[in-house]
Amino acid sequence: MATPAASKTAPDAPEPEVVSQRTRRRGLTRLSRLQTIGLLFGLLGVVLVGQVANALPADDVIFTFGFGDLAPELPVDPPNAVLAIGVLFCVAGVVALAERWTHHYAGVALLVATGLFVPLVLVCSLALSSSNQTNLIPLLVESLRLGTPIALGALAGLWCERSGVVNIGIEGMMLAGAGVGFVVYALVGGGRGGLALYASVVVAVAVGGLMAALHAVLSVTFRTDQIISGVVINLLAIGGTSFLRQQVLLPLGVQSGVTLPAVSVPLLSQIPVVGQPLFTGKPIYFSMFVIFVLTQVVLFRTPWGLRVRSVGENPHAAETLGINVITTRYQAVILGGLIAGLAGAWFSLETVGSFDDLMTNGTGFIALAALIFGKWRPWSAFGGAMLFGFANALGTRIQFLNVAVAGFPVPSQFLQILPFVVTIIVLAGAIGRAVPPAAVGVPYSRSR
Amino acid sequence: MRAPRGMMIAALALALTLLAAACGNDETGTPADTGTTLPPADTGTPTETGTMTETASPTDTGTETATPTDTPTDTGTPTETGTGDTASAAVSLADVCASEYADVEVPEGFSVGLVTDIGRVNDGTFNQYAFEGMQAAEECFGIETNFIETSSEADYARNLETILSPGPDVVVTVGFLLATDTLAAAEANPETFFIGVDQFQPEYPDNYVGILFREDQGGFLAGAMAGLLTESGVVGVVGGREDVPPVVRFVNGFEQGAKSIDESINVLSVFLPSFTDPAAGASAAQQFLGEGADVIFGAGGLTGSGAVRAATDAGVFGIGVDQDEYFTTYEGGEAPGAEFLATSAIKRVDLGVFSQIAAAVQGDFSGGIFELNAENNGITYAPFHDADVPEEAATQIEEIRAGLADGSIDTGVDPVTGLPAEG
User: What number is the ipTM of this complex?
Assistant: First the structure.
């Protein structure tokens, strides 16, 4: 999971600006950002120890991991567990506040404390629910699965923005991929699987690339405002896919189709109890991990990756070194679009097996948030995407466990906004200042 | 420092979108797609009808289909073939027409207009079902009909005005969300009869009838079915928006129905914030499966269908809603997993629309609530089709339906609030 600490080790963060920012704030409050967060953790720890721990029912709750009789079970005593987490929060708070003298460990302490949020929420909600047992493996798997399109969308945005082109059209690229992919599937394969299904995934990917190419033409060649260009992509996708659905899908009568088959990772899926749920999944889900690794390697370890980053930071300097800024931006934007198209295929061809208007439901925008959350770095963005996936899965879980606080069930509407609340908190506070690639949003014109 | 400003605009756009998403995702489609979509011709044209019929009623229904094949241009096919082989208690509108309205005198130039909720008359939801009811009335009485498909919530009032402009005798509006505009139109046009599907009003003018359903009974049937089928003792229901009363009635009815079979059955339920997010429905269903659920009821439009699909894909029973999803989601058994669709909890929107139009034609229309329930065959369950439902369960579910119909079984859900009744 991405954390505040990650920023400290960033190789490419423009340091001078960050430092000046921090000094300024110190002058006002005498507390650095880490210390402020540490203070909040400390206060939360005190509340947990003093108030929450003894308010929880004392009956043990049981977390199971996996299926079958062999599944390990972890009985937890809620008051004591919360007490322990509260104490650790206090310790983390003290360590962070002491950073001024020790100059060490604040990041690590807060990282651990942040991680402890997960068991805290799980223990509290299970203790307050009508059930005393829940299976954590499906929660984990669903978090990853719900995070998949967000993570892919974030990667799409990452490639685009690293090259200096803002991309708020991820949503549209996804939707177009999902729509056209399924229409082709229905037309060619009748929604009955087989080779046509895989061909349709390829089409979805290509359509994402085409939409991105349009974005590149508008914003790189014609130097349109990149925000406007992105909006155009979104609107075009909404209208275009809706039209296709009306004119092709409905008359065709193909309402649902066979989705991509689940595959198992050899060996790993043979691990007893947890192997099967964790290492059985669908192709796009697994490919997400591969694409992340590839992105990390290509962007940071190859000459072309360096070129992409340099045209995103300082295109004029890059040009003087003989890099073709226009071409590089085109390549990066289209590559991003291909990934967005794959994310679209996740919806229509991997998960649902049909296409409906607006079926991407704003995922592209969440992906953009995950990208900013991850400060334009692949693994941090992955962490962000999975955090949203987890918030989503957890909202559902808390709802069907009938969690009640002080005798009142938590309103479903509150749980449904959980991912968005997490977005706001994360973007506004927890991650600090996210510095985009320096040239992002600036149309490039060749130096004279 | 121009770059951060660009990002700020992006963040603003993001925030607005998130806001829109949080307030109900189904409205985000408006920008590109606003305005009224008028059908190619004012009346349902032959091709239009044919398309609709084809989607709703695959040729292999095998029963009561008036024509052997449904070609796209075949308007002659009675619309009710799609629901033709529903449960034993389900009635065909053609039969109703023949038996009850054989010699009705139809006023000269009688016309009916229909406004859909967001969606189309062939979209496989209650829009289509209401449209089929109107078409059946057209077949039966030889009246004129036309319709407008709504593509945005902002267009409700405008579409109503448009449909009212030629001065129809009856206007049908589909959906809870059109209730306010329909009431206003009914008050402004006292000479026109208004039929509102799923529209509850504290008070109705004399020319406005709200067709309401006992969804709790439908949910109860689905819950009882789940209770009869489950082996793990865990069943789940994925509902749509909690602020839409029919959804709440379905979900609570389901819980009561399952518990009526065995008090110890664990019913997992969630409400999701959109009716058009099948991926979210599927994900919720996956979590249910992880908790050991082996029957899943989807009660929330496409979101619910996503959950049902996830269940049947995993090889456990799914139960559909509103209409027989065997014909919509599962394309008449063509789609994978159809053998795990146990049944569907059916709301006969078509029957409601048809009988109210008939009332208007006969001149005995009266304002107020027209309730469809198990007793008047407005609520029932779909046949099992390819699903392997044990004989015993089939007998029991029919007994429960009969019990709901004759009033000997109470769902334990307040039909107005949709909440479990006290005591």
Answer: 0.78
